[in-house]
Design brief:
With 392 residues, the chain is of the alpha+beta class. The chain has helices at residues 2-14, 16-52, 64-73, 84-92, 117-122, 143-149, 196-203, 269-277, 291-334, 336-344, 349-381, 383-391; strands at residues 56-60, 82-83, 96-107, 110-115, 127-130, 138-141, 156-158, 174-181, 192-195, 206-207, 249-250, 258-259, 261-266, 286-289. The protein has twelve helices and 14 strands.
Length: 392
């Protein structure tokens, strides 16, 4: 048997081009359906678990899928904005606890999510290093974000401008990292968390700058810190420090400040039904969704796509088998003289069959190993792509 193995190994090395072509074809044939299956299963598990843990979502009327993926996975484009007044109405209804979200800006490539401490309690997020934010400009990093940025408590993370060509827009803010969250294995690991006041500063609603000595008339009841439009006031602070933190203030009514979504936590099943009924009026600019139902519909689209891909994989596999058969047949034809020489030297036909079988088994084994590696790599890197594909 050792002689057969030696001849098969030498044959594989000698016909390296043929071996490489067969291995590549079989690797792609095996890895494609396996990668699709692993990706869909992983996406379903993560999306379903997070959706089932989220009772209700409130946001502007529009794409249900876009709003759900934005609020649960922090992916896709930011939906139309609603106002803080919607969160106040939910709280005043005494039917649910609102958890407001505002996620539009990025800091060094990572989404900045403005929210309240209720979100950390709801998602069971714990601080692994550092402490909670204490003022405007403080932030918490998800575990993956901290590792990617190589940042921790005491470091600074600068936000990105929404539009580089809009010189009148809000300036980037230098966020102070106060803590790093413990890893959860969810999308919360990949973002930067700030409080709503900091998110509104990023929106340009609030700012901080040097005070002036000149008097200024402020309308009664206006939510504006007294200041005048002097030259010194045109230089807004891009960094919140102990010296200037008291100068940060907001313009306008807080009820009109923007939010991208609200997670509503009903008191009980009856409260959930009553709250959903309040959004059935045609003139209401907001909508309420049950994430579990939206994700179930979304998975229907995923499985329809998967069935099409499975059919494509079957056709692709059939073509590959024909190609492999053609290559083997041509190889045997080209090696006819070589095989006849081996037969005349005393090799039995069974020995020749063994050599050919070992060659094919070796190629098959290499293809399975490479296909497994490629499927695992695709599974690790492809989940974000499939989410973007569904949103887009």
């Amino acid at each position: 048997m050792s002689g057969v193995l030696l001849l098969a190994r030498r044959s594989i090395r000698y016909h390296f081009g043929r071996t490489l072509l067969l291995t590549a074809c079989l690797t792609l044939t095996f890895s494609f359906p396996a990668s699709v299956h692993l990706l869909v299963a992983r996406f379903q598990a993560r999306a379903t678990a997070r959706a089932n843990a989220t009772p209700l979502l409130v946001g502007a009327k529009g794409s249900r899928f876009g709003l759900t993926l934005h609020a649960l996975s922090f992916q896709g484009e930011t939906p139309e904005l609603i106002t803080m007044g919607e969160s106040v109405r939910i709280r005043e209804s005494a039917l649910a606890t609102p958890v407001p979200l505002l996620a539009r800006f990025r800091a060094r490539g990572h989404l900045v999510v403005g929210t309240t401490p209720d979100y950390y309690r709801f998602r069971h997020l714990e601080i692994q290093r550092g402490r909670s934010p204490a003022r405007i400009g403080d932030c918490l990093l998800g575990s993956s974000t901290a590792a990617h940025l190589n940042a921790g408590p005491g470091d600074r993370v600068t936000t990105e401008s929404e539009n580089l060509f809009n010189l009148a827009g809000p300036s980037p803010l230098n966020l102070r990292v106060t803590g790093v969250l413990a890893p959860t294995g969810t999308e919360d690991d990949t973002v930067v968390f700030v409080d709503l006041q900091t998110a509104w500063v990023l929106e340009g609603i609030g700012h901080g700058h040097s005070e002036t000595n000149g008097p200024v008339n402020v309308p009664p009841g206006a939510n504006v810190r007294p200041h005048s439009a002097s030259t010194s006031n045109l230089r807004s602070h891009s960094d919140v420090t102990d010296e200037n933190q008291d100068s940060f203030h907001f313009h306008g009514n807080e009820a009109d400040f923007p939010l991208s979504a609200i997670i509503a936590l009903p008191n009980d099943e009856k409260s959930e039904t009553l709250l959903m009924g309040r959004y059935l009026t045609p003139g209401n600019p907001a909508q309420v969704l049950k994430p579990s139902e939206v994700v179930q519909d979304l998975m229907g689209i995923v499985f329809d796509t998967k069935r099409f891909l499975d059919l494509s994989a079957v056709l692709f596999g059939a073509v590959t088998c024909l190609l492999v058969g053609l290559i083997v047949a041509l190889s045997l034809r080209l090696r006819k003289q070589e095989l006849e020489t081996m037969f005349k030297l005393g090799c039995s036909r069974w020995t020749i069959v063994q050599i050919q079988s070992i060659e094919l088994l070796a190629i098959l084994a290499m293809s399975l190993i490479l296909a497994t590696f490629l499927s695992i790599l695709t599974n690790l890197l492809g989940l974000e792509w499939i989410s973007r594909f569904l949103v887009g």
